[in-house]
Amino acid sequence: MELLIFYPLAGFCVLMGLGVIISSSPINSALSLIAMMMGLAGVFVLQQAHFLAILQIIVYAGAIMVLFMFVIMLLNLKSAEEDTWSIRPQNTYVSVLTGFLALGALYKIACVISQAKLDSPAAVPDDFGTVVRVGTTLFTDFVLPFEVASILLLAAMVGAVVLAKNKID
Fold it and tell me: How far apart are CA 21 and CA 13, in angstroms?
């Protein structure tokens, strides 16, 4: 029964991820990213990680994407859109090579997964996804990446303010 819900959600997430990459408008890319994060929250709900699903919606689809939209609107990227198709041939070759490498890696992953024995799902602990478990893990095992992410977000906000100040003056 879970697979009937998982596969459409996974397909939706993949389509929205492609929408992020393919879209020529930064606003549409950000909206596709928000929709993909909502689908990912649905996958978290399927895994009985309700707290992580709510965090995904509130923190990422809410706060972080509002910041992204603010920066996109602030930068007004319309002039950059006009030059989108004037790319160098070297960039095209590197992009095609990277695409083939990514497809090769995905093929290898699919081969490994198809040979794995997936008869029974892994046992999930009772406290998986709870506030206590997430908080304990976040502030003991992952405190350094948590602080690095907060510094990066602070730098992004300061950069947006500096760019906005230069445009206003």
Answer: 13
Q: How far apart are CA 24 and CA 77, in angstroms?
A: 11
Token digits of residue 67: 């910041």
Look at residue 162 and tell me whether its pLDDT is greater than 90.
no
pLDDT of 75 > 80? The answer is: no
Handedness of CA 57, 61, 66, 71 (dihedral sign): positive
Task: Specify the CATH architecture of the domain 2-78+94-168.
Answer: Up-down Bundle (1.20)
Token code pair at residue 51 = 């707290």
pTM over 0.90: no
**Whose structure tokens read 């492609």?**
18
